[in-house]
Amino acid sequence: MSMESKKGAPVGVFDSGVGGLTVVREIIRQLPDENIVYFGDTARVPYGSKSQKTVIRFSEQIIRFLKTKQVKAIVIACNTASALALDIVREEFDVPILGVVAPGARAAVKATRNRKIGVVGTDATVRSGVYTKVIQGIDPQIRVIEKACPLFVPLVEEGFKEHEVTREIIEYYLESLRATDIDAMILGCTHYPLLRSRIREYMGKEIQIVNPAYETAIDLKTLLEDQDMANKGSDPAGSRYEFYVSDTADKFRQFANTVMPFDVPETNVVNIESY
């Protein structure tokens, strides 16, 4: 690929479902000239209850699919896949791959005053202990409390964000965290920013809530500039966004329209198992 076509090549972004759209939204804000190909693994969501071996296999299939779209870089917009598969797939593929964990961890270290950080995420992310490792790698003095909230993803995917049951489940999961003296909390799953106002309401104003999506977009910007791959708005027609899923395209698109700042174009179903 020539340098020029590389600049115009899209960035690939993937997640287990709709959560990764919170990362796409930030990439569009920070990098309006970049073209994006998004893949949501709607047939196999959620990832957070799956084993590492399975999450690695799913991630490899999706990356192989994204590579057919000539992507110049890939963002794993899923904390579970970032936690369980990032290191493996980075070794395996010849395309720069970013995860959401390191950017979120760095932001939380900056945000905390008393060096006590809470992390909410899926079972798999919390079991991996990746946030504690990365945060303590930056500052070993920081105490990290991780809490699995497995029902948050299905609540978001089913559109239950405003429902009473969501308030009860937030309280059920976060009661123990609220009782600690953490002063920063990482939304360690890309679905969780969609519950942010509800979580904030429950946790109180004193706690800084860190959304790794913004930090990840900034990391992507740095990567593209460093490698001279940033697209400088060469297309007068504007940036192109393509959306692919492994199942239920209509349901995905309906939900995506509530997350994205524009009408999501037609969403195509891909037989991801064939990659």
Give the CA-CA distance, first to last residue. 22 Å
**Count of discrete structural domains:** 2
- At the fold tier of CATH, the topology name of the largest domain is Rossmann fold
As laid out across the biggest beta sheet, the strand order is 4-3-1-2-9-10
Q: Strand-and-helix sequence, N→C?
A: HEHEHEHEHEHHEHHEHEHEHE
CATH architectural name of the largest domain = 3-Layer(aba) Sandwich
Beta-strand content: 15-25%
Low-confidence stretches: none
By secondary-structure content and strand pairing, the structural class works out as alpha/beta
* Cα-based radius of gyration, to the nearest Å: 18 Å
Helical stretch count? 12
Provide the residue-averaged pLDDT: 94
Largest sheet: 6 strands, parallel
Shape: globular
Number of strands: 10
Helical content (DSSP H or I, runs of 4+): 40-55%
What's the CATH class of the largest domain, please? Alpha Beta
Structure characterization notes:
The protein has about 280 residues and is of the alpha/beta class. It folds into 2 domains: about 160 residues, Rossmann fold, CATH 3.40.50; about 110 residues, Rossmann fold (3-Layer(aba) Sandwich). About 45% of the residues lie in helices and about 15% in strands. It is built from 12 helices and 10 strands. The model has no long low-confidence stretch (mean pLDDT about 95).
